[in-house]
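Morning!

This is the sequence you dropped in the shared folder:
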Amino acid sequence: MAELGPLLVGAGVALGVAAAAGAGPARIAASWRWSLGCVRGQYQRRALAADWAWLTPSRLALLDLGAVTAGTVLTLSLTGLTALALAAGGSALSLLNGLLLTRQGRLRAAREDAVLDSVRLLRQLLEAGGVSVGEAVSVLSERGPKPLRDEFASITEASVQGTSIRAWQAARARLAEPSFDLLAAAVTLQRPAGGELSPILHDLEAALSARLAVSREAEALQVQARGASAIILGLPYAFLFALAALGSPYLAAYRELGGELFLAAMLGVMAVSRRWISHLLALPLEPRLTVGRG
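The structure's back. Tokens below.
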């Protein structure tokens, strides 16, 4: 998920370009509506991904505004440096976004574990014999992993009405989890193919277990690298903050216009470097499985 700051800057640039190009009021208004739509959509995606009942897009916007305001005002009152205060506001926004990303990562890990447990339990039920695939899915809705019980309950209810394939597709759309895509494809394509599901689930369980082991190790290394980069880039900022808060005479030059501009440029380079390092450390997203109809 992209941070909100670049999106707002891009929206402001778009409006500025439209105004500078001599666009009429109607076109500027259309650009303004488009920008607001992008921002609104970003907040909706962030609030939905956090999966907190109390977190609505409007409340998330207030949290962002409060974080930026608190960081900026507090730093400005302690240091008197405008550039440092603006950097503190951006850091507060990044910290809030980091908390949401951590929450999303935990939810994603829980869904991945739930899918693996569901595959294992479904395989065990089918290998034990005496139950059909529909009955095994019904058992998952009652005794399966909690994050997926509601989805399996919806699929079981749809199976009675003869619309199980649509229910699997709807569950895939809601979860947006590549592992669940594989499970859905194995179940929905097993009957037309005429094969047995147990061997497929056995291979799927092994593949998912291996993939999760590799991805968790990669994520652990990514967290270590991100933490190291944050410490390295944050030390100069913390040093400046401490000197400014203590009223050190070494920062007298930064309280003039030229010094403020130089400090703003330096902090901007640090922010761009942090963003570039985060981009380099980002893990590629696993592609979703698309099941087409021949």
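Headline: The two ends are 34 Å apart (CA to CA).

More detail when I'm at my desk.
O.
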